[in-house]
Write a structure and sequence with these properties.
This protein is α+β, with helices and mostly antiparallel strands and about 130 residues long. The chain has a single domain, classed as Immunoglobulin-like (Sandwich), CATH 2.60.40. It contains two helices and eight strands. It has helices spanning about 105-115, 125-134; strands spanning about 10, 20-25, 25-35, 40-45, 50-55, 65-70, 85, 90-95. A four-stranded antiparallel sheet has the order 1-6-5-4. The chain has a four-stranded antiparallel sheet with strand order 2-3-8-7, with no helix packed on it. The longest helix is centred in the last third of the chain and has 12 residues, at about 105-115.
Length: about 130
């Protein structure tokens, strides 16, 4: 397992959250430390075609507004299958590696596993849940 931490997140705001970039054997784990924030104030947009992830806060939070961008996510990671989880002030984004067609048995196993993980909604599901709370 390759556990490297990189500060590749770009932030364009006064509040700059601490970020971790951890590349494991099967997935890329991105963590954004957001103490004091609640899930309803966080927007996570996973832009698969451009291979980047944007995490920002509700613009109404003037003093704590932030806009963090994870750029240049390697193409070996499948952003379409990315999952998010917010717990104890930490937003965790899990991006699995692309599964090649050669390992189709492994791909079926991985797909079945990801569908059973109710605690990791997709970026779209995360946004839909947040919008329904408003």
């Amino acid at each position: 397992m390759d556990r490297r931490q990189r500060q590749t997140a770009v932030s364009r705001s006064l509040f700059v959250p601490q970020t971790d970039w951890i590349e494991e054997d099967e997935a890329l784990i991105l963590r954004v430390h957001l103490p004091g924030f609640s899930e309803k104030h966080i927007d996570c947009r996973i832009i698969a075609p451009s291979h980047y992830i944007r995490v920002c806060s509700d613009p109404a939070l003037k003093n704590l507004h932030f806009n963090t961008l994870f750029e240049s996510i390697p193409e070996k990671f499948n952003l379409i299958e990315a999952r998010t989880k917010f717990d104890d002030g930490i937003l965790t984004i899990k991006v699995p590696k692309v599964v090649s067609a050669k390992s189709s048995a492994g791909a079926r196993e991985l797909e079945g596993h990801s569908k059973t993980r109710g605690s990791w909604p997709t970026g779209k599901q995360c946004k839909q849940a947040r919008d329904s709370k408003k």
